[in-house]
Specification:
- The structure is a single chain.
- This protein has two domains: 177 residues, no CATH class; 169 residues, no CATH class.
- The protein is built from three helices and 18 strands.
- The strands form four sheets. Strands 1, 2, 5, 6, 7, 8, 9, 10 and 11 form a nine-stranded mixed β-sheet that branches. It has a five-stranded mixed β-sheet with strand order 14-15-18-17-16, with no helix packed on it. Strands 3-4 form a two-stranded antiparallel sheet.
- Strand 10 and strand 11 form a beta hairpin.
- The longest helix is centred in the N-terminal third of the chain and has 6 residues.
- It comes from Ichthyobacterium seriolicida.
- This is Lipoprotein.
């Protein structure tokens, strides 16, 4: 239906500007809303790479499945709607992507489908030779991988134009420009709250249930164990420097006392053959983990793997206990969505058992 559309799409700012050969037709073509729908922007059974980038990053990562709902199941929303305030006058539509200092470019050109709604029904209008009737229209177009980049989103230099014409007419009745850019809104939140440093228990391998406190009953695979927020050790600490890192602990278990009161690990603690990953760690929206290059400062707590040269053995990680069940600490930073604000954190495995 839109076979001739791509030939009309030009790179640059997506701007809707108008000429006035027919005031009535132009008025009828005023757009009231623009949205991208999940069901129309898929890659197989998952949301498309482009659709992912319309939403702020979350940790744990969102589920990409087309049938996974947002909210409790952590899927993507059913639609991304352009706010009315992002439509400038009657010619420019801004698509504001959430700011992402770690933005990764598209791996391949993206075919995108937008749904536009007019303020009133249109008739006798074409887009790329395709007739447009009624109050809504589906507009497919292509975004080259070289255009949707961090650099271009920062300055809003990527644009696409859409020209609507009267049927059989050569000149445009109305032209819109859609501008893809980063939103100016940036969160500065980078705090891991108590009850958010989570580990999903597994039968074996990383987070094996045998390594956790089993007083009263063994923790079931799929349940979560949360690192202890050390109130005493964190007194006066704000996380703004390495010396004032905010501390969490996986503590040795207290005899005959169940988790969480009795600690997170077995009473003897974790050997260097006990592997962990904080795969239920919750970060503020848009925030990410920053690592260093020195020993114990180069391990991603979420995956449990070193920044470089990490283990590739199935069921093992670089986030592990220590020989003789001695205490071992790992450090990292959480950087806020703004890419600037950060806090330092320390995770200690085999911390002292609760008193």
């Amino acid at each position: 239906m839109f076979k001739n559309l791509f030939s009309l799409l030009t790179l640059g700012l997506v701007v809707f500007s108008c000429s006035k050969p027919n005031d009535t037709a132009e008025k009828a073509l005023e757009i009231s809303s623009v949205k991208f729908e999940k069901r129309k922007n898929l890659n197989g059974d998952n949301v498309s790479e482009f659709y992912e980038k319309l939403f702020i990053t979350k940790t744990p990562a969102r589920a990409k499945g087309k049938n996974v709902a947002a909210g409790a199941t952590n899927g993507y929303a059913n639609e991304f709607v352009i706010a009315a305030t992002d439509i400038e006058g009657d010619s420019i539509i801004n698509v504001n992507l959430p700011y992402n200092s770690q933005f990764t470019n598209l791996t391949t050109n993206a075919t995108v489908k937008a749904t536009i709604t007019f303020k009133s029904a249109v008739e006798g209008i074409t887009l790329g030779g395709t007739a447009i009737t009624g109050k809504t229209a589906e507009i497919p177009f292509e975004i080259p991988a070289t255009e949707l980049t961090k650099e271009k989103l920062e300055v809003g230099s990527f644009r696409k134009d859409f020209e609507f014409s009267k049927a059989g007419g050569a000149s445009a009745v109305k032209k819109y420009t859609v501008v893809f850019k980063f939103s100016n809104n940036k969160f500065d939140k980078c705090t891991i709250e108590q009850g958010e440093f989570g580990f999903i228990v597994a039968e074996t391998g990383a987070n094996a249930k045998a390594n956790f406190n089993s007083h009263t009953s063994d923790p079931a695979a799929g349940t979560k164990v949360f690192a202890h927020y050390s109130t005493g050790n964190n007194s006066g600490k704000d996380g703004l420097t390495a010396a004032n890192a905010i501390e969490f602990e996986l503590r040795k278990g207290k005899a005959s006392t169940a988790y969480p009161t009795g600690g997170e690990l077995t009473t003897s603690g974790a050997l260097d053959t006990a592997y962990f990953k904080a795969d239920a760690l919750i970060l503020p929206d848009g925030a990410f983990i920053e690592l260093g290059t020195t020993d114990k400062d180069d391990v991603d707590p979420i995956t449990g793997i070193k920044k470089t040269g990490g283990t590739v053995t199935a069921g093992q990680t670089d986030l592990k206990g220590a020989s003789g069940q001695s205490s071992v600490s790992y450090t990292f930073r959480v950087v806020a969505q703004d890419g600037i604000t950060k806090k330092h954190y320390k995770l200690t495995i085999n911390a002292n058992a609760p008193s």
